[in-house]
């Protein structure tokens, strides 16, 4: 099995699940036990400053980071937060996912987000997308997803409403020309 860690799952146009329609999901972990990823293009109606207020973390409302949107990372454990960010060592629970993307789940990263000590770029999600053993592979066979190596520029530098389209463009295809039928020889 080839791991899809540090790849994007791009929802096919035929995928009509309300949570995953036209999503780009960054795969953080994929092994024989299953997969875990974060949807990076579904902002919710909560800003970083509002989220930090809700969990009693002091923050600087005048910092532009406080106005960033929080994202719905997936339908699983929507009460758990994840921060994807550009590399910055020193947080208590960071994991390097690639040379330019880290994930941190500890409160110390949240406390830094509206300060001069924050990562250069970040994205907060609430919840995650999870697949049990073999489930993602089956969905790939069913033609639900396109897969491409992740690029941090899509996560951190592309407006959320353009991320799906930009990820599809990386494939060099016209998404409107794709069939929803999977071919198996």
How would you briefly describe this protein structure?
It comes from Pseudoalteromonas aurantia. By secondary structure, this protein is of the alpha+beta class. The protein contains 5 helices and 10 strands.
Keywords:
about 180 residues, alpha+beta, VC0467-like, ten-stranded mixed β-sheet, 10 strands, UPF0301 protein CWC19_02765, AlgH-like
Describe this entry's structure for a reader:
The chain is of the alpha+beta class and 185 residues long. The chain has a single domain, classed as VC0467-like. The protein is 18% helix and 34% strand. The chain contains 5 helices and 10 strands. The chain has helices at 48-54, 107-112, 135-141, 152-157, 163-170, and strands spanning 7-11, 24-31, 34-39, 43-47, 69-72, 76-85, 94-98, 101-104, 122-132, 145-149. The longest helix is centred in the C-terminal third of the chain and has 8 residues, at 163-170. It is globular. Belongs to the UPF0301 (AlgH) family.
């Amino acid at each position: 099995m080839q791991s899809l860690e540090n790849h994007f799952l791009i929802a096919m146009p035929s995928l009509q699940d309300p949570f995953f329609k036209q999503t780009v999901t960054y795969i953080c972990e994929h092994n024989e036990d299953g997969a875990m990823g974060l949807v990076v293009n579904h902002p919710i109606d909560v800003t970083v400053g509002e989220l930090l207020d809700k969990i009693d973390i002091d923050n600087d409302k005048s910092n532009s980071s406080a106005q960033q949107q929080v994202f719905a990372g997936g339908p699983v454990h929507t009460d758990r937060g994840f921060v994807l960010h550009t590399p910055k060592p020193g947080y208590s629970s960071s994991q390097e996912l690639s040379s330019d993307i880290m994930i941190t789940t500890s409160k110390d990263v949240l406390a830094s987000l509206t300060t001069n000590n924050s990562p250069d770029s970040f994205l907060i999600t609430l919840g995650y997308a999870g697949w049990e053993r073999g489930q993602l592979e089956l969905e790939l066979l069913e033609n639900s997803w396109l897969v491409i190596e992740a690029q941090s520029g899509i996560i951190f530098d592309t407006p959320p409403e353009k991320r799906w389209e930009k990820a599809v463009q990386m494939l060099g295809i016209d998404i409107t020309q794709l069939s929803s039928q999977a071919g198996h020889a």
